[in-house]
Amino acid sequence: MALDTAELLLHPVRLRVVQAFLGGRTLTTADLRAELPEVPPATLYRQVGTLAEHGVLVTVGERRIRGAVERSYRLDEAAASVDADAARAMGPEQHRRAFLTFVAGLLADFDRYLDNGGGDLARDLAGYRQNAFHATDAEAAEFVTRLRALFAEYAALGPAPDRTRRLLTTVLLPAARPEGAAADQGAPAERR
Q1: CB neighbours of 18 closer than 8 A, spacing ≥ 6?
Q2: Structural contact between residues 165 and 23, judged by C-beta atoms closer than 8 angstroms
Q3: Among 5, 40, 104, 190, which is least packed by CB within 10 angstroms?
Q4: d(Cα 21, Cα 57) in Å, to the nearest integer?
Q5: Distance between CA atoms of residues 60 and 159, nearest Å
Q6: Domain limits at 22?
Q7: Does 33 fall in a domain?
Q8: Cα distance between residue 136 and residue 64, in whole Å
Q9: pTM over the 0.70 mark
């Protein structure tokens, strides 16, 4: 089955599987079943197989358990990314579907957090908020570059007994404005 990267990753279950591997994790299908209990086992196995077949998941180990082979997988992050050219080729409906899939995965993560005793955002150093800033395209590109560098610094720390795996989800959009309207300069327009 030939799938382009966007089509491959924007399936709701496959996206959830990919998200489970974020942070350099090595997981078996049994680990995934524990993390995604709402996904029927046959569906989970089929989607893991599809991701492995397309090189998104890489087998890093095998062991025999009661006559069956249990594989350990890791995420190939490069294969699990939609590149800029593929994103540009997507139409508005594909982007809507992609964003909806993304948001559904985010909601599932938040539900899992709450279901596992979460909800004290201060205690858990968790939160959700929306902020705004004004920037030229060059300034926004610099912001993204610096944010990626900061994230890479912390992602390189890796797992340890005293470290909690944390999810950082970002969405960066230009604020919508009516067609033909001048860019918001931060000050009210002068009335004439």
Answers
A1: 9, 51, 56, 75, 80
A2: yes
A3: 190
A4: 9
A5: 18
A6: 5-126
A7: yes
A8: 56
A9: no
